Amino acid sequence: METITILVIEDNAEMCENISDILRLKNYQIITAQEGLKGLEMVNEKNPDLVICDVKMPKLDGFGVLKKMKSQSSTSSIPFIFLTAKAQKVDLVKGMEMGANEYIVKPFDGKALLEVVESCLETHINEG
Fold first, then answer.
1. Quick check: 28 and 57 in contact, CB under 8 A?
2. Does ATP-binding appear among the keywords (predicted)?
3. Taking the model in full, what pTM does it have?
């Protein structure tokens, strides 16, 4: 089975490490970025199979990352999961309208994270 690469874009180092550890337990290859601009660089360099991205970050927020990814044909089909502490419906709606595949609200447990990731990847594979 081919290795699945997931990019985690999260400015909170502890949160980023926790997400990475959970995903590594399922043998996903994890790459990380601490902010949106670096995250976009990683998307273009590494072409990950999935992006998990925090909404509120310095330099470029998650909405900006998603907008830029959707505007480039090389990255527009990469599944995208928003990760946020903001559970406000307006943000969820905005993210989904912009093309996010899923939305995870912090705090979450590892099982919920894995279920969303696996569902997102499965849908993407079946569509592709």
1. no
2. no
3. 0.94
Structural domains in the chain plus CATH codes = 5-127 (3.40.50.2300)
Query: Is pLDDT at 128 greater than 80 in this prediction?
Result: no
Distance CA(59)–CA(7), nearest Å, equals 18
**Do 9 and 26 form a contact (C-beta atoms < 8 A)?**
no
Whole-angstrom distance, CA of residue 39 vs CA of residue 91? 20
Q: Is the torsion defined by CA of 107, 91, 22, 65 positive or negative?
A: negative
Specify the residue for token string 């990847």. Answer: 121
pLDDT, tens only, 38-76 = 999 999 999 999 999 999 898 999 999 999 999 999 999
Q: Residue 87 carries which DSSP code?
A: -
Please, what sign has the CA dihedral across residues 119, 87, 40, 27? negative
Burial class (CB within 10 angstroms; exposed 0-12, middle 13-18, buried 19+) of 66: buried
Strands (E), 4-113: 5-9, 29-33, 50-54, 80-84, 102-105
